[in-house]
Amino acid sequence: MAAHSSIEAITRRIVERSKPHREAYLDRVRRAAAKGVHRSTLSCGNLAHGFAVCSPAEKAALAGDVVPNLGIITAYNDMLSAHQPYETFPPIIREAAREAGGVAQVAGGVPAMCDGVTQGQPGMELSLFSRDAIAMAAGIGLSHNMFDAAVFLGICDKIVPGLVIAALTFGHLPSVFIPAGPMTSGLPNDEKSRIRQLYAEGKVGRAELLEAESKSYHGPGTCTFYGTANSNQMLMEIMGFHMPGASFVNPGTPLREALTREAAKRALAITALGNEFTPAGEMIDERSIVNGVVGLHATGGSTNHTMHLVAMARAAGIVLTWQDISELSDTVPLLARVYPNGLADVNHFHAAGGMGFLIKQLLKTGLVHDDVRTVFGQGLAAYTVEARLDENGMVVREESPEESGDPKVLTRIESPFQANGGLKMLHGNLGKGVIKISAVKPERHVIEAPAVVFHDQQELQDAFKKGELNKDFVAVVRFQGPKANGMPELHRLTPPLGVLQDRGFKVALVTDGRMSGASGKVPAAIHVTPEASDGGPIAKIQNGDMIRIDAVNGTLEVLVDAAEFAARPAVEADLTGNDFGMGRELFAPFRQHVGPADQGASVFFA
Q: How is the cofactor bound (predicted)?
């Protein structure tokens, strides 16, 4: 089916806006690709260093410039549950490459931090910046000029966006992303949330909380709620970077290994040495980016991607704006209910039909572009499938069923859970911001209440424990933007605000920081820009000012006389406490040069 009229119009607008940047980008990609197999440009000394540890047969193959060499960029570490399975992937990929007549080498490793470990800790102030550091680290790995294609092993929050930026920077190379899959289901996410709120109220102790958390995060694989990590996997599939049906197969299963082997062989098949050359920079275009945004809305995905997708697109010379994202939200209905906007986890989503069923529904009414390039070599319709193993242990694909396996988790396009997407953009006299409404009850989509101002999340925690917040209010937590302290997720605010809301109070949050990718039931206007450290209007708010958050009309306002508000000086804060400790001193140049949230909060595209 042809693209929906609104989808087509927004895509055309992005194409026109992006032309100068995209044309210059494609020129660079094509000139790099035209140089051919890059090992031919290396001196004998260069090449000898590059394949010193290879077998004699591999050395002979690589010396001849006729056998493709696959670079592996890995974010493996065994502290992250999602990334621990990657320990065994390089040998599997090397063997698959040999079977396909090629060679594979680990080109480099990239850092991979866990936001779940650093939530509320000083290390969280490195989290957002780790995305750009990951892109640079991957760039170093690929800079050896030894490779005809690359595979990227990454799952979690900033890691996949950083790897995508690297893949598109090396856009003359084909790139395939290989997922590791979600952990099996443990303690239900809503029960985990309940225990967290009880702990915040002092009704259970640390032992009970740790037991609940350990039962929820209990083994190898991605956390099972629908936060940034699983939103990443959805994006990689709907944008064509994954093999069809690969995103949500559990680690340690025969199908997972077979999909990994298949992905490695496919990466070798689409190099310039074959007949299906698919460089990443040509493959990903404006249509692919729009498909990613549509998928994000249809699944109620992570708020973090209002920054990540902007930065990822910009790496390919594509200028995506918050206005584009907002207008797409008005067009795309919500088709998935996965925690926090439902009780199911991502395993239930996959069992209900997963990505194949979702993409099939979106294609029905032209909400995604089918006429895109993918690593699979076909348009997006080829992704309306479920991956299985045949009797020989090979991957086969069956057409996704017409009906959902669980309509409470994944529904048809004809009967959406709500008419618009899970993310809304806000604007007004406080600047611009983002709100995730897929898990917020409709009666809380508009909140008007007096401001209570804080300069860090611990101040709010302390006020809650003292019983000072048993009232209607909008918490304004400022000086949490990228320039101030790296824009940490303010995840520790979720339990106390949830408790206050459950007590019947009208509460909301306004912040220039981030919330978790699993932002939940409390209305939260986040990513407010300009941030307080840039003298943004949020720095002028005073205790008692009436704040209005309107997710229906998309507005964010302080209800103060315009002349009075304009005359107020912007408050300044002492941020020296953010400068040192847990590596924060190493990231001072990032804080100095980072761009605003609506431009991707990046040091590359400031």
A: Binds 1 [4Fe-4S] cluster.
